[in-house]
Amino acid sequence: xxxxxxxxxxxxxxxxxxxxxxxxxxxxxxxxxxxxxxxxxxxxxxxxxxxxxxxxxxxxxxxxxxxxxxxxxxxxxxxxxxxxxxxxxxxxxxxxxxxxxxxxxxxxxxxxxxxxxxxxxxxxxxxxxxxxxxxxxxxxxxxxxxxxxxxxxxxxxxxxxxxxxxxxxxxxxxxxxxxxxxxxxxxxxxxxxxxxxxxxxxxxxxxxxxxxxxxxxxxxxxxxxxxxxxxxxxxxxxxxxxxxxxxxxxxxxxxxxxxxxxxxxxxxxxxxxxxxxxxxxxxxxxxxxxxxxxxxxxxxxxxxxxxxxxxxxxxxxxxxxxxxxxxxxxxxxxxxxxxxx
Length: 341
Description:
5-stranded antiparallel β-sheet; Arc Repressor Mutant, subunit A; 12 helices; 45% helix; 3-stranded antiparallel β-sheet
């Protein structure tokens, strides 16, 4: 448990580092944040915070920089977000209320305004699960692989394969296909994606293959989810404006990450599915790209259609700004959807 003074000093280090991208010295904290504390006291606290894993000292004579653990603590302390400025609020309102007509235009407008206001890469993932399932087919590829296919009233989704055990013969494939169709035909994709195995699937005639059956369903869920997504990324080059990516190799690596739309969609939508709740992932241990932070919120866009909007930037992100911008955009979208606009 951190004392109140340690909390203040730690948050001061993070705030300063976000602004300057430079190691923070005790005198900086005293002058800018805690004039009532002596430099000696602040130095002692910094040393303790370093030993606790919150701070890193790049060189013996240098100041400290916050670790990912420190940024996580900092974000958790942001109980209230800073409001966007009047100018930023007007810009967001204009983009979303006056420049959109279709869902595609909504996605484009959202990515543009987020990137412009925050100066980070913006992402919007639209998850359209409104299709109804008309058939599920399991195709034996005769090489130990089973191709799983979902046919909907508007698409054919056929990107998933499952390893077949030797004893899984044509009769069992036909039986599995029969049960899948019996349970899911006529249902929306959203009902399938949210299906909680085993539900009605546990029966005597199929019990010995339940493990494989679950694997088939998991693959079908992934195929359905990814095929129902539209991903729009904007402002990838904004990452290069931050000192973390001044090195050519680091810049090349992060730009390659931005090109992997399936991976980006997975990061944004892996948020527990709670609408209008903000999620912050910091660093690779929290499933963000290495050295990056991802802030997202999920919004309702219509029947069986939801969206995840977010920002990708360095761990040294202006979280106050990003959280407030996403909160404002979410508020406007709720109003637009509620009015049927």
